[in-house]
Amino acid sequence: MLPALVVLIVVLSVTTDGLLTSSNIVNVLSQSTVVAIAAIGATFVILTGGIDLSIGSVIGASGVAGAWLITSVHSVAAGIVFALLVGAGIGVAVGLLVAKLPVVPFAVTLAGLYVVSGGSTLLSHGRTIAPVPAGFINFSIDGPGGVPYAVWMTLGLYVIAQIALTRTAWGRRVLLLGAKEEVARINGVSIGRVKTSVYAVAGLFSGLAGVVLTSELAGAGASMGSPLLLNVVGGVVLGGTSLFGGRGSLLRTAIGVLFLGFLSNGMSLLGLASYDQQMVTGALILLAASADGLVRWVRPRTATA
Amino acid sequence: MTSQAPAIAVRNVSKSFSGVVAVQDVSFTVAGGEVVALAGENGAGKSTVKNIIGGILRPDAGRVEFGGTVPAAGTRGAKHSGVATVHQETSLFPDLTVAENILIERLRTGRSPVVRPRRLRRIVAPLLQRVGARFGPDTAVRDLAAGQRQLVEIAKALAADPRAVVFDEPTASLNLDERELVMQIVEQLRDDGVAVLYISHYLEEIARLGGRVVVMRDGHVVGDRPTGELDRAAIELLMVGHELAQGYPALPQPRPDVMLSVRNLDDNARVHGISFDIAQGEIFGLAGLMGSGRTEVARAVFGLGGNAGQIEVDGKSLRRGDVRAAIAAGMAFVTEDRAHEGLFLDRPIRESLSNVVLGSVSVSRWGGWLRRGAERRLTRELAAKVRLVARGGLESGGRSLSGGNQQKIVIGKWLAGRPRLIILDEPTRGIDVGAKAEIHRLLIDLAQAGSAILLISSEMEEVLGLSHRVGVMHDGRLAGVLDRSQATQEAVIRLATGGGR
User: Fold this and answer.
1) Which residues of A touch B370 (CB under 8 A)?
2) CATH code (residue B323)
3) What would the DSSP string read from start to end of A174-218?
4) Membrane-crossing residues (chain A) (predicted)?
5) Which of A54, A198, A242, A267 has CB atoms 3.0–4.6 Å from A272's, for a disulfide?
């Protein structure tokens, strides 16, 4: 996928003005932040061969929960912690259901999507919760070197998550469970515990994504995260993490998310109307994904590692 | 095309995978009406040759000719030339019927889009009769035992009325009767003028089928002679490159203390009221016909099914249905299904070896930071312990290994500590004589060190040669337990077929 991203950036930088100016790059990174954070959790889930469709609604629910506490007790810190707890709590619940019920993750998390979305709309009475303090909004606007704090944090989280995946026993178990669940079970991997943990992690990162989105929008509404689900899963899968599990990384996810980010930004710079943008996005996703497949097909077949 | 041209001619074929040479300048021929046996250890290059003949792989150099002509590339080229392959790992669709599987490539009649079941049955019935199948064309493949599936594979190959057939380990999952059947089918094909390439580890089969034997070692053909000129020892010498110790090693004396105690094991399905003990240092063989419940007993003991009954390990009662508790109690389980349950084919070999003991190479018992140096050292030790031959190193994928070396991983992953009880289900199925002898040696060493061993094998010789005592299963029950002195082939078969003692 990296070659596709490079080609995209080269083509866009020739055809548009100002794609590679520092202000525009910061722009792309900021616009990708929320999706990028949620995609960290989604990567771990997908590595086990699972899927989490509730990510968008958990972003909304935790954002609403955090904004509610921030506006009612005037403590940003308490609001953030609460949002993270709500996200992680929902994640643990979803994970336990996935681990214990003989139901595929697609169905469990689809149910989760509806319940969480309905519940958070009900509790927020369908209203947008605002205003939040200016300092909190600044988190996604200002930062060292003109790069928002939220972007720096996301970069750091990717480094930490990649290390967790490749350098800890937990990460190894996630990968091996996804590679072949039957082997992992016989080897004594606690299948239920690992599965629960990845959905909990997905919930936690969705909660954090909800906090950052609330900061970006200067308020929170229950439905604000719903449109992001496809971009989150799309970024992970475009990056080359296998939907069947056992193969992938955070680095790949970062590339996939950046591809979508630069694509959307470039088309705006080109002045494409939104329906045109959708069609071009679709075509380029197909092209990028198949280019990856073509490379693998052309190369001689080798033992995969 | 000339009539003298051999049905299959492999000419100077070479093939490498990512720089590792799999076969090098291999040449041999198979004429119509001739059986040529292809022998060699795992990893010698037999499967690569088979796949090149079948059009699944393209050779880097050299070519394959059928009846003097070079076929079109790909699997269709081989099929159009009348060359059929009977694969070892069954390539059947479990949810389709026997008839549908056999005719999978020509389900339709002419241009009609409709599949006519009656037509399928009419074509398939004589084929099933020819392979001696005792099941109907409408049986779902899912409901067939492994041996029966192999017969379907053979019928599928014969359906195309081939001029040449490649058999890849066709008897690896079969019992004695079924093996005899396959031998007869091969002989019939030969007498009908079909060219047969027969890949097998069973030297008895090779000797019986006659014709010629082509022996491969390390990707080269090291012998191509009439079977009559080579005895068993000579073939083994060619395969391995050095002399093998004959027969089975002497068994160490078991200790008096009981290591495993099983009482009234039951899974309400295939296994009923099983009770037995295994002492420290004892090898307990479990024999029985296919489907008699041997595998189910092994799985139930390890916690993979069947919760009724009591199990004690070294005097301590074991929580049932819990694999992690079984491992914590010192059990190890070597599955009969290594591709599906044994190792991670698409991950590095190192990860398959270290998974069981990941806690011991990370900073805390529950996980956390992996100490990669410790992991590498441990996996190198384990690989050495089982004499793993991984030409691509421990970072290459499990799929790159031969069956015998994959099996060494499935065993080796348990050997970081000394298991108190090691359960082995068909540990030497489909692997070559060299690897087999090494695995036998390893079992003896484990018993010597005090481990209890539960050994299941369809190979009577192996069970009798390695076991202190042999339990014989019949129809889900333990029909009897024979001491080493009583355990003869006849006695085991009598119990296994329900004949009593």
Assistant:
1) 167-169, 172
2) 3.40.50.300
3) HHHHHH-HHHHHHTT--HHHHHHHHHHHHHHHHHHHHHHHHHHHT
4) 28-46, 76-99, 146-165, 198-222, 228-246, 253-273, 279-298
5) A267
